[in-house]
Design goal:
Blueprint: E1 3-10, H1 14-24, E2 34-42, E3 45-52, H2 55-72, E4 79-85, H3 97-103
Antiparallel strand pairs: 1-3, 1-4, 2-3
Length: 110
């Protein structure tokens, strides 16, 4: 069953966010079960929302890539994680997503 995951990371900085993405290499070599990754700044950190094919694949990613990647760069932040079944998904402007990615503040190379 597809799930939506939310990770609120307290105190995460833009530099740390970029460092962990680069360390894991997920933008160039995404995890097979991941459909979508979105990030927003929130009060005191960042919120990462993702759509996964299964909660098991999300858990495997956390253990195999996120935890080792965070350890490799010395990142130790409080995280609040929620996992909920996907109820609906709607993407009427999917074809415009590449242009949106190119202007996102946290994009690769920004």
């Amino acid at each position: 069953m597809a799930v939506i995951t939310t990770i609120d990371v307290a105190g995460l900085t833009p530099t740390e966010y970029r460092a962990i993405l680069d360390q894991m290499g997920v933008e160039h070599n995404p995890e097979p079960g991941l459909y979508l990754h979105l990030t927003a700044r929130i009060e005191g950190g960042y919120r990462i929302t993702e759509v996964w094919d299964t909660s098991e694949n999300f858990d495997a990613f956390m253990k195999a890539r996120l935890a080792p990647g965070a350890e490799a760069i010395g990142l130790d932040r409080q995280m609040t994680i929620t996992i909920e079944p996907l109820y609906n998904i709607f993407a009427p402007r999917l074809g415009e997503m590449p242009a949106l990615v190119e202007t996102a503040e946290g994009r690769p190379g920004a």
